[in-house]
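Morning!

This is the sequence you dropped in the shared folder:
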Amino acid sequence: MGQMEGPSFLDVMAINLHYNCQARCPRRLPCQNGGFTDSRNCNRCKCPSGFGGQYCESIPPSFSNGCGGELIAYEAIRRFDITIRQIGQQRTKQCIYHLRAPRGKRVLVNLVRVQGRCVEGCWEDGVEFKMTTDPRLVGYRFCCQPRYQQRILSRSNMVPFIVTSRTNGITLTFEYTFGKRKTRRICRYFLIN
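The structure's back. C-alpha cells below.
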C-alpha cells in the first residue's frame, strides 16, 4: 500500500469505496480520467496526479507560470529540456504537462538526461511518465541517469508527465515523437541525434 510520499491515488480511492465516503454527497459527479467525487467537497472530483479541474478534465496548475501545459508530438523528433532548482526555502515544485500525439498514434519518449536525487521510488526529485491508458496508476519514475538507454512507448496518444523537485532540484532532457498504435518495432527506428 502506498508509496514513499504517502498513500497512492488508488489507495485513497479504495479507502473511500470501503467506507462508502461518497454517500456523504447528494450525487456523483461526472469525473473524468479516473477521478471520483471528493467526499470532502461534493462539488469537485478527486483527481489522479497529472489532472485537475472540477471534473479532472484539465492540466492542473504548475508551481510557476513558466512551466506546465500541453506538448504536441510530431513525426519529427523533438527535444524537451527543463531544470527546476531549489533556491532558498525548500518546497515542492511541480511542472505538469500532457504530451499528446494524434489520435490512433502512440507517444515514444527517449530519456537523454536525468539528474535528480537518486532515491528509491524517485519521489523527491525526478520525473513520472504515465504511459498506460489508466491515469490512476503511478507511472514510470526516473531520478538518476539510467545505465541503459530508456525508451518508453505509451499505450495511448496522451501521456501526462510530472517533473517534481522537493530537495535538490532536477534536470531533465528527453526526445519525443509518435508512431502508429500497432507498431511493434517503433523503438528500433527511434534514433538519437
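Headline: Residues 1-58 form one domain.

More detail when I'm at my desk.
O.
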